[in-house]
Amino acid sequence: MVAERQLTHPLKGATIALCAREPEELGPISALLEQLGSVVRIAEGIDDLEELLRKENVDVVLAHVCPSRQEFMSVLDRKGLPPVVPLLCHADRHLYLETLRRGAFDCVPLPMDKAEMERVLTLALARRRQQPASAA
After folding, report:
1. Which of 4, 17, 1 shows the shortest CA–CA distance to 51?
2. C-beta of residue 82 within 8 angstroms of C-beta of residue 54
3. What is the dihedral of CA 133, 75, 90, 44, to 10 degrees?
4. Rounded to two decimals, what is the model's pTM?
5. For residues 108, 110, 113 and 114, what is the CA-based torsion angle, rounded to 10 degrees?
């Protein structure tokens, strides 16, 4: 008889900061992350995010960015952050390229594609685990 292996999702146990001015808009993303075993922390503004990053060891930051809500772009200017993955609400090529130029790990378009979200976050988490302890 072959023993069954318990497979766990790579995002299980990861702490993910979900940043949006109106977090209820991102409820499906939060639900997906929790279903995968991640710990989700909500930041409702840049000040909340700054405080969260000071208090907790966050593995990945998901920040809602669109042409009318770019306050989270300033997060990309900070050094020593965990990987930042902007959630882009429009297929805006300029905004996409700007987030990458400013240091985003990658971007995920909204509406969310579950497989793409998991792929990007799994890679971001792998990058986080490779960062030196001083950057964590």
Report:
1. 17
2. no
3. 100
4. 0.85
5. 80
